[in-house]
Amino acid sequence: MLRLRAICPFSWRVFQFRPFSFEPLLNQMNKCTDEEQIFDLIEKNKDILSEKQVACALSMLWQFQKQKSSLLKNVECIRDHPQFLTLHNLTTTKMEFMNDSTLVNVLYIIQQFGFEAHDPLVEALVTEAWRRLERFDINVLSKFSSCLADQHLCFSPLMGKIADIVNRNLETIQDLRCLSVLMVSISSLISQRFQEQLVNKTEQLFDTIDSSQVNIARRIVQFLRNIKYGYYPLLERCNKVFLSNVNHLDLDSISKILSLYHSLQFHSFEFILMTKKRLTEMIPLFDYPASFVKLFVTLGPVAGPEEEKRLKSTILLMSEELTSHQALAVMGAMEEMESRNSRLIRKIASILHKHLDNYKPVELLRITQASIFLHFQSKELFVKLRELLLSYLKVSVIPSEISLLVCALSMLPSPHLDEARISQIEAVLPQCDLNDLNSFATSVLRCIQYDHMYRNNMPGKQLKLLQKLDHYGRQRLQKCSSLNLLWEEVKSLKGDWFADSLLEETVVTLQRLMDEINYINVAGIASFISRTNYLSTSLLDRIASVVLQQIEKIHPFAILAIILPFSALNYDPPQRDEFFGTCLQRLNSYLSILDPLMLVFLGYSLATREYFSEDLLKAIFNIRFLAKLDSQLEHFECILDKRKKPLPYGSHNTTLGKLPKIHSELNTQIAGSRLPPGAEKIALEFLDSRAFCRNIPHLKGKSAMKKRHLEILGYRVIQIPHFEWNSMALSTKNARMDYLRERIFGEGKSSS
């Protein structure tokens, strides 16, 4: 017997403590209906549990948690149970006998119960999985990569090893679900060439998935976001999956998808329209802060006036229960909504003030930006913000963090940079990219402007700092040898300093690297030229050439961005008719699904070049298109009878976005076709500062176009400029009421 033990120690260790049969116990576990029954079985059988039974117990406990709503989940209570500790210890001793799939599943469950990466069991499970890594099948490998990502190990050598395995086996992978998980996990480590290979593989496998696979589509979009690649063909295919499942998407899914779209600057008119309806239906369903804040943040920026009012009134009632991060999310959404609800702004600001010590530097910047944008004035808040920002700034050594802290300080009242801060900025300039340099320059200019206006001096040290910023900016541009690297830095640059100091050098650099312009980056370069209003005929000719040579690879959604600089800068390329004709031909099959505003701008851009497409004009001037456009033009509206008296909304009225189904030719009274004789519909629009040119109160094209199209729809349009509404002359309620009466009804002042 002793000799047998010596010869077969492994077999003896595995089998000596096992029961005669573990099937009955597994059956008992599978029949359990709550956690206590599982724990009872563990307590009674802890001395004889096998690795399969340990894994089964953990799996059952997690299944019970998944079946509960977020309010009823009790992860901490389960994790702290004495018998869970027994399971924890048993897992440590049994894991080497678990098969690969069970091992990784146990790691996943342990993490779901809140055990951190430094927990000894988590470390042991990861180490054991690493030892087996090369033999993992694609399903196990994908789940393991997801576990590592949850531990924030995206840049670890282990994740690098997983990326290498995927690279070596990419041709044989046929499961897009597993591949999409791996793509997200390894996205931070892979080369551009490998990124393109993964995108191509995804396109090949896309038709193998069911149209209901929302999670796969979402992960593909997340991968594209992670690698900063707005690849339209894949985005469009994923969008179709979301649209076909929109009635089954929950709040979390809609929120994530819209956030990803925003990061990729991908706009789907249909998805926004359908999810807006779905989110509006959810307003009465959430009565606890965590979910309602997410709804507020997701729906608020796209909500109509009525929905916005309901959202704000509900969040105001919940405001006392908001956490620090929930309050910050609400403030950010209010900024995006351009809210003027002073009561809600004051309430949220008071919560932010109370928790100010707990926020990170980037969050303090967001609070500063939102407070300034929403015109919230609080000396106490601003004093506390300045104190915290300075305390972070004094110890910071990271250029990007220093730039955002200086940016926040420059936004506060009475901005000023002392010598110590100027020296600190100068010390990090050699490490700064163009975004950091632009941020510093914008901040310094604010301080100089304040000193000049209110202190009546021109500080020499700040002017010298500006000169150094100019020098490092030009130096960085001159050293740049890759268009893709340059584009990452310049694509979001804006402001006076960039336009005055670096724009010309940037264009020279683009011209030097313009042979690298291709179907992937051509729309971005065109957008940059439109935004900067800098005419470079060589760049525009190169753009036109790339379009003509690679049009089949350019997605129709990118065509407007490509055409825009030729329209805005009044320039025709050498192959003018061929260029515009090729662009329109690429677009024709998409005219019916393009965003209505995008289609109008496209028609306008081509019209300025005296290029008119019959298909495009037919697409714009028809009832269906105007109905879609109408749904995007939000306002306030009212109906007046022939005596200028308001009519109640009834069956004879048609709200914006819900046009009557008319099959006749276009006429100028579409929206008013069901109104009583002599009645008219009034559309009232408030125009904020973004509707006007920066230097003079001249209305910009978008608002002017909106007015024209509402008039085509049968509305009398009244636009209220912000500089009139916020003027001293309209500082009282009575004055504003008189102003509205005069604009809407043509009446004189009230007698009150």
Structure description:
The chain is mainly α and 752 residues long. It is 63% helix and 3% strand. Strands 1-2-3 form a 3-stranded mixed beta sheet. Helix 3 (23-31) packs parallel to helix 5, helix 4 (35-45) packs across helix 7 (82-94) and helix 30 packs parallel to helix 32. The longest helix has 22 residues, at 434-455. It is globular and about 85 Å long.
In short:
Keywords: Kinase, Mitochondrion, Transferase. This protein is mostly helical and 752 residues long.
Range of helix content: 55-70%
Structural class: mainly alpha
The main sheet comes to: 3 strands, mixed
Count, helices: 39
How many strands in all?
3
Report strand %: under 5%
How are the strands of the biggest sheet laid out side by side?
1-2-3
Outline type = globular
Keywords:
transferase, disordered N terminus, kinase, three-stranded mixed beta sheet, 752 residues, RAP, mainly alpha, FAST_kinase
Question: What's the structural blueprint in terms of helices and strands?
Answer:
Elements: H1 2-7, H2 9-15, H3 23-31, H4 35-45, H5 51-66, H6 75-79, H7 82-94, H8 100-112, H9 120-132, H10 138-150, H11 157-169, H12 176-186, H13 192-205, H14 214-226, H15 232-244, H16 251-264, H17 269-282, H18 289-299, H19 305-318, H20 324-337, H21 342-354, H22 361-373, H23 379-395, H24 399-411, H25 419-428, H26 434-455, H27 460-479, H28 483-490, H29 496-512, H30 522-532, H31 537-550, H32 559-568, H33 576-587, H34 596-608, H35 614-620, H36 623-632, E1 636-640, E2 680-687, H37 701-712, E3 715-721, H38 722-725, H39 733-745
Parallel strand pairs: 2-3
Antiparallel strand pairs: 1-2
Keywords: Kinase, Mitochondrion, Transferase
Domain RAP: 682-742
Subcellular location: Mitochondrion
